[in-house]
Amino acid sequence: MEIDAWVWWLIGAAALGIGLVITAMPELGMLAVGAVAAALVAGFLDGDAVAQVVAFVVVSTALIAVVRPIANRHRAQRPQLATGIDALKGKQAVVLERVDTSGGRIKLAGEVWSARALETGRTYEVGQEVDVVDIEGATAIVM
């Protein structure tokens, strides 16, 4: 018993799909779609081996050429909504206890935080507004 070419292409697509799941390489998914296109050429259009390979190459290459740059662009974008300590960076706070390089207290986003000055020798007095530059553990670095 001989297996039709379209079945082999679908087996290849399934293998590529499994590889996609295991490795999380999106290119394997695009190659799987190319294999499905070749299976369609083999099954519905009765295309010969050359037509099947051309369909696989054209569809796979087109998907990689179009989808990859879009995916890379989305991966490089920062989230539009900052959360956690990233949301606190750049905020203003009010000094509750004198802040210098050894420590102090500020009120940041309605909460009391320990803080220290970014610049050596710099001090901030009670009531003064400061900018949060960074967060290290539970300490805000201010200037």
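Next protein, fold it too.
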Amino acid sequence: MLKSVILAKPTDFSTGFVDFFDSIGLTGSGLVTKAVAAVIAVIAVRMLMQTPNDPKRALRNGSMAIGTLFVAVILAMYGSDLFSTVTDAKG
């Protein structure tokens, strides 16, 4: 007879999105930060794809795209910590 293997414990998502975001470790502001970083990363990749044929302009545009991609990665990794100082201000 086969035994059932439980891969994950059941989770109650009856309160909606709050439970879901808590289960994946994101808050609403963390999700927004990740979305902003994803949009910036897409813009940076698009900038890389549209480099001109002129070597000087291509180097300048490519370095700006790499810098933009770096900002997107830093924002994705540390954005919630950076913005928590602004959003949790005590008035």
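About the second fold: Residues 55-87 form the longest helix (33 residues).
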